[in-house]
Amino acid sequence: MCGIVGYVGRTMDDTALDVVMEGLTRLEYRGYDSAGVALVTDDGIDAEKRSGKLENLRAALAARPLPTSRTAIGHTRWATHGGPTDGNAHPHRGGEGDRLALIHNGIIENFHVLKKELVEEGVEFRSETDTEVAAKLLGREYDRLGDLTKAMQVVVNRLEGAFTLLAVHADSPGTVVGARRNSPLVVGLGDGENYLGSDVAAFIGHTRQAVELGQDQIVTITPDRHEVIGFDGAPAEGRAYEVTWDAAAAEKGGYPTFMEKEIHEQPHAVADTLLGRTDESGRLVLDEVRISEEQLRGVDRIIIVACGTAAYAGMVAKYAVEHWTRIPVEVSLAHEFRYCDPIVDGTTLVVSISQSGETMDTLMAVKHASDLGAMTLSVCNTHGSTIPRESDAVLYTHAGPEIAVASTKAFLAQITACYILGLYLAQLRGETYADDAKSVMAELQGIPAKIEDLLGRMDRVVEMANFMADTRSVLFLGRNVGYPVAMEGALKLKELAYIHAEGFAAGELKHGPIALIDAGQPVFIVVPSPDTPHELHKKVVSNIQEIRARGARTIVIAHDGDEDVEPYANEVIRIPRCSPMLAPLLAVVPLQIFALHLSTAKGLDVDQPRNLAKSVTVE
Length: 619
Ligand code: M6R
Fold this sequence. Notes:
Layout: E1 3-13, H1 15-27, E2 34-41, E3 44-51, H2 54-63, E4 69-77, E5 92-94, E6 100-108, H3 111-120, H4 131-145, H5 148-156, E7 161-169, E8 176-181, E9 186-189, E10 194-197, E11 209-212, E12 217-221, E13 226-230, E14 235-236, E15 239-242, H6 258-264, H7 266-274, E16 288-289, H8 293-297, E17 301-306, H9 308-325, E18 329-333, H10 334-338, E19 348-354, H11 360-371, E20 375-380, H12 386-390, E21 393-396, H13 409-429, H14 436-455, H15 459-467, E22 473-478, H16 482-497, E23 500-505, E24 522-526, H17 536-549, E25 553-559, E26 571-575, H18 584-601
Parallel strand pairs: 17-18, 17-19, 19-20, 20-21, 22-23, 22-24, 24-25, 25-26
Antiparallel strand pairs: 1-4, 1-10, 2-3, 2-4, 5-6, 6-7, 7-8, 8-12, 9-10, 9-11, 11-15, 12-13, 13-14, 16-21
Helix pairs in contact: 3-4, 4-5, 7-13, 7-14, 9-13, 9-16, 13-14, 14-18, 15-18, 16-18
The protein binds 5-amino-5-deoxy-1-O-phosphono-D-mannitol.
Residues 307-310, 354-356, 359, 362, 405-407, 495, 612, 615-616 line the site of 5-amino-5-deoxy-1-O-phosphono-D-mannitol.
């Protein structure tokens, strides 16, 4: 939810502050209610923090430049406890003379009890945050023990909930101490300088050598070393790896927004997710599977858990996986699954889908499924994140870093990965549809070129978005795999353009929602491929007629060559022809472009829409 950066180097100059501000710029997608930095200077701790976006902090730093330093921490916040004010912004201070500064990502669930204890000791609080409790506790323990790492060890053992903490103390220049539980923290290894970040984007401009901390670990960095221990004080090690993408991948690359760049990266996201999925004999393989083939063969039920766009990817996948494997698939919003007393056992496969791998609702659903004895498999875009680590098996999507808060390329990569999983399970079970695996994989290989082609035909969609900037409500209809696509189109419009939008199953319209249709109501209809079985195509064409007859303005997304829709469409947006199951990978693209340009036409912040954050690490 929040973005965290830490830095230590050898030289007293502006590098520490520059590195931290650069890291915060890359992490701002994680939260942008307020931001702050703290430096260890020759005179103690100096800090600055401001509510609002990072530019407010930048202006404050320009107005009052901070002294030189070689040790800095920085934070960009998505508020949980306490509103987005200057006072609630991080860092928070603690210890005698406020000589300690601390930043935090997550929620400390027992902060009320701890705060009461501190207040009874006479400690005064200046904010409404749970974070300040950790700062005051850590300050107290440092004053007692005189060692920041030991003090951190005492404190983390008293905290409940999810947290990444970074702290610096005026008495320890050249040292930053971090700790993590249920929230990410990565070390970046430099030459005579070291880094900490919520994710590698924090320091990707400086090093690609990373060490991912495990659950319940504490790390101490100085310019020349990083030392990891467990919360119990025992020596520990993080997992070292080399980041395979560079700083350019986390920058806009000439596009006005990250979202536009990420939409245009979709051909690569799909192609890269398909890469290397077969062995020498042409059989599909997964990434990291700690479940035996025999156990997977015995799967008799699949439950997909995810939130938001990832859940819509799961809904698309349900149709395909059931079709190829004949295993019943349910899709459950992760937060509903966790608290609905789900029926799962040792033959249930719970598949989580998450771009970030840190969504707390999804993580809790996965842990709950494991506790109930289910096998768990994660479809995830972020290497080393928490959800894959907590799962028995992983299938990584290779969409590259997704920075815009609204998910686009991750959605396509998630569908692709779920299809690979479905075909893999079909292959294992030797079902009739196992034979389809090769032909579906071959057709999937052709999808990136079709997305590329489609992206080149979006001029009319952009025009429509521009003249529809004043629209108050838009409906989206789809059937079968087109239904989740319709819901994804509505979600994009809600989150980017703050317009009321709903996605419906087209067949459901006549059972109530058709009452919403009056003259001029814009309705997008995702039309299935004319090759879809069960005359579904015809049924959707009838649905278009029904709403057109009631005055709707019909904007139809149809395959090339589908002439049946023409008489009932005010606008037709064409997508390249493909088989019915693969159509979501194309049909969603015009809906993303529409939302992007409508948001731009309204002058809104495309990459960082109001009230949202990229990784939702609270339940
Ligand atoms: O990181 P995740 O895929 O787990 O995130 C899930 C949702 O929070 C995410 O898809 C959200 O709905 C996006 N804002 C949609 O654009």
